[in-house]
Write a structure and sequence with these properties.
- The complex is a heterodimer of chains A (about 250) and B (about 110).
- By secondary structure, chain A is mostly helical.
- Chain A has one domain: Cytochrome c-like domain (Cytochrome Bc1 Complex, Chain D, domain 2, Orthogonal Bundle), CATH 1.10.760.10.
- Helices cover about 45% and strands about 10% of the residues of chain A.
- The N terminus of chain A is likely disordered.
- Chain B is about 0% helix and about 50% strand.
- Chain B contains no helices and eight strands.
- Chains A and B meet through helix 4 of A and loops of B.
C-alpha cells in the first residue's frame, strides 16, 4: 500500500512542477488590470482603429494594381498567416516578417512603393492580418533555412550591447518579473504585435519595441530593415512558441 | 481624421439604460512637445464632443491637452424612443466630424 502510494505522489508532484517550469508568460500577464481590460475589449482597444483601417486598405485598389482582396479574397483567408511568421520565402531565398511580405506584394503586384514598418497603413495591414490569427499558437518553422536565422537571433539575444553592456537575455530571462523603474520586466515575447503602447500613444511594430530596448541600454539601434532585426524577430517568435497571438496587444 | 469605432446596442427596451462607447482616432497633440529640431509642435486636440439622441443633447464633454491620444468615451443613456444618436466632435483646427447610429426602442 505504502509502496504504491509513493510513486503516485511523486507523479503528482512532477505534474505540478512540469507545466510551471515550461510555462511562458505573455507580457499581457505583467501589464496592469486596466491595460489588460483595454486589450480584452475590442471596443476599447485602440488597436482596433488600425484594424478597421487595415480592413479598408485590404479592399482598396491602389492606382498601379489590384487590391489585396482581388488576389487574396476576404481577409479572413489570412487566418493563421501571422501565427507562422517570420517565415522563409523559398522563391526569393530570404526570411520575411509580415511587413516585408506585404511590401513584396505592394512592389511586385501592385506597382506601389514599399511602406516603412511604422507607416500607418503598414501597421493597419499587419494589425488587420494579425487579428485574424488571434488566439492561435505562435508557431513558426524552425527547421531548414529558418534554423540559421533563428540561431543568429539567439546569438544576438545573448550578446551584451550598448553602454550599459546588457544583453536582452539578462533582462528578459535572468530578470524577468523584476522591476525596472516603474515597469515590470516582461519575458519579452513577440505574440502581440503590432501593439498599442500607452507610452507611444500609438500602435507600433515589434522592431520599434526592440529599438526602444536597444536605446534603453544605449546601443545604436538597428533599423527595422536590418537582417539583425529580422533575426531577433524570428528568435523571439521561436522562443515564445505556443503563446497565443494577441494582436493587437495593449501594453503600458 | 479616421473613422471612429462606435458601439451602441441595435435595440433596447423602453426605459432601459444603455451604454454608448466611442473610440476616436486622434493624436491629441498637447502643444507641450517639441519636434526633433526643437520647434514646439502646435497644440491640436479634440476640444468638444456632443451627443444628441432624437435631436436632444444627452452628453457633452470638453477635452483638455492632458487627455491621451485616441480617446475612449463611455456614457449611459436611458432609452426613450426609436431615434438617431448623433455624435459630433470638433478639434483645434476647426474640423468637425460626426457619426450617427439608429437605436430601436421596443
Amino acid at each position: 500500500m505504502r509502496a504504491a502510494a509513493l510513486p503516485v505522489l511523486v507523479l503528482v508532484l512532477l505534474l505540478h512542477a512540469l507545466p510551471a517550469a515550461a510555462q511562458k508568460r505573455s507580457g499581457y500577464q505583467d501589464a496592469g488590470p486596466q491595460v489588460r481590460a483595454m486589450q480584452d475589449d475590442d471596443a476599447a482597444n485602440p488597436g482596433f482603429l488600425w484594424v478597421e483601417q487595415g480592413r479598408a486598405a485590404w479592399q482598396a485598389s491602389p492606382p498601379g494594381g489590384p487590391a489585396c482582396a482581388a488576389c487574396h479574397g476576404e481577409i479572413a483567408a489570412m487566418r493563421g498567416v501571422a501565427a507562422r511568421y517570420p517565415a522563409f520565402d523559398p522563391a526569393r531565398g530570404v526570411a520575411l516578417d509580415l511587413t516585408r511580405r506585404i511590401n513584396i506584394c505592394r512592389t511586385e503586384r501592385q506597382s506601389a512603393r514599399p511602406l516603412a514598418s511604422e507607416a500607418n497603413e503598414m501597421l493597419a495591414l499587419t494589425a488587420a492580418i494579425g487579428v485574424e490569427s488571434r488566439g492561435m499558437s505562435h508557431r513558426i518553422a524552425t527547421d531548414g533555412a529558418m534554423a540559421a536565422v533563428i540561431a543568429r537571433g539567439a546569438a544576438l539575444f545573448n550578446t551584451r550591447l550598448g553602454q550599459l553592456n546588457l544583453s536582452c537575455a539578462q533582462c528578459h530571462e535572468e530578470r524577468a518579473g523584476a522591476r525596472l523603474g516603474g515597469a515590470v520586466i516582461p519575458e519579452g515575447h513577440a505574440n502581440a504585435y503590432p501593439e498599442y503602447r500607452l507610452e507611444w500613444q500609438t500602435l507600433g511594430s515589434l522592431p520599434r519595441r526592440i529599438r526602444a530596448c536597444l536605446t534603453g541600454v544605449r546601443a545604436e539601434p538597428w533599423p527595422a530593415e536590418a537582417p539583425e532585426m529580422l533575426a531577433l524577430e524570428a528568435y523571439l517568435a521561436a522562443r515564445g512558441e505556443g503563446l497565443a497571438i494577441e494582436t493587437p496587444g495593449v501594453r503600458p | 481624421m479616421a473613422r471612429p469605432l462606435v458601439s451602441i446596442p441595435k435595440s433596447v427596451r423602453r426605459g432601459d439604460i444603455f451604454d454608448i462607447r466611442i473610440l476616436i482616432a486622434h493624436p491629441m497633440e498637447s502643444g507641450q512637445r517639441r519636434d526633433d529640431s526643437g520647434r514646439a509642435i502646435p497644440r491640436e486636440i479634440i476640444n468638444r464632443f456632443i451627443c444628441t439622441y432624437g435631436g436632444e443633447e444627452v452628453f457633452r464633454a470638453e477635452f483638455f491637452p492632458a487627455i491621451a491620444a485616441n480617446p475612449f468615451l463611455t456614457f449611459s443613456v436611458r432609452a426613450v424612443e426609436t431615434g438617431m444618436i448623433v455624435m459630433t466632435w470638433t478639434d483645434d483646427l476647426g474640423a468637425s466630424q460626426f457619426e450617427s447610429a439608429e437605436i430601436i426602442v421596443t
